[in-house]
Amino acid sequence: FQYLKRFDQGCDLDRFWYEALSVEGSPAECLQLFLLHCGVVDPSWAELRNFTWFLNVQLRDCEASVFCNPDFVQDTLNGF
């Protein structure tokens, strides 16, 4: 949710890191963003769960990768 919210606001995500245990927005806002970005017109709860699980895994791996660390790659992959 934190990434999707900042993406919609046009923020630079290259320097953003997930903030564990921080609460942002309301449950309704969270659900609205998931529905907007999941890519399915009328998703089931299972489809929303799979979307959020997949997004979470990808973003966690991205944050853990040295190749996605802006301090390591500097400006060679800006916006990647």
TrEMBL record:
Instruction: State the UniProt keywords alphabetically.
Output: Ligase
Transmembrane regions: none
Gene Ontology molecular function terms on file = ATP hydrolysis activity; ligase activity; ubiquitin-protein transferase activity
Q: Which GO BP terms, alphabetically?
A: negative regulation of non-canonical Wnt signaling pathway; sprouting angiogenesis; ubiquitin-dependent protein catabolic process
Q: Which GO terms describe its cellular component?
A: cytosol; membrane; nucleolus
Top-level taxon of origin: Eukaryota
Which protein are we looking at? RN213 ligase
Q: Which organism is it from?
A: Tichodroma muraria
